[in-house]
Amino acid sequence: MLGVCQKIQKNHTQEIKKDYNISEKSKGFDFNKSNRYGSSFKTNKGEYNTSINNGTSPYNSYFGAGLYDDNSYNEVTFSNSNSSDVIVCLENIYSGATIRNEYIRKGSSYTMTKVPNGTYVVKVFYGNNWNPNKLLAGGKIKGGFDEDISFSISDDPSDYLTMNQHKTSEGTSYSVWSVTLYSVINGNMDQRPINVDTFFE
Question: In a 3-state reduction of DSSP, which class is residue 60?
Fold first, then answer.
């Protein structure tokens, strides 16, 4: 369910802030992120990573390298207090381009910095036990979770993340967002379930 969110605009060294809490629908939604490979263990199928480090972009080969604006102060921090790791994507609503795909481990937070101006939806791939050899979407994608898998999107206009850095008479105004992901009723950011093909569109 959607609840109350807050947006405050300040100038120069201050921020446009909006705090989001993810609400629970049919499933709990989890966020997690990483940048390098993390812990691994052996199974009868061989050795693979159970998770990768926060900030890893495992799907750059599909979506392309992340887009960064070195002059931008825009950022969004994702906090994951769920029991699953996640891959969080920012998709530009006008171009359809996924500009970031970031791994975030359960129980951790990750900040996407230098985000270009634009309006974005958040897409999330939830799961546990990362397997770098798993094939998804008819073999188009390599790497994925082996357990507790689900996908979601926040595509209601009220849930868009708008990044807007601009000059004002007092300096530079820019956007800072916080998205807290946990399974509760009465959160203030709605996500609906999607399938793997929609996630990788």
Answer: helix
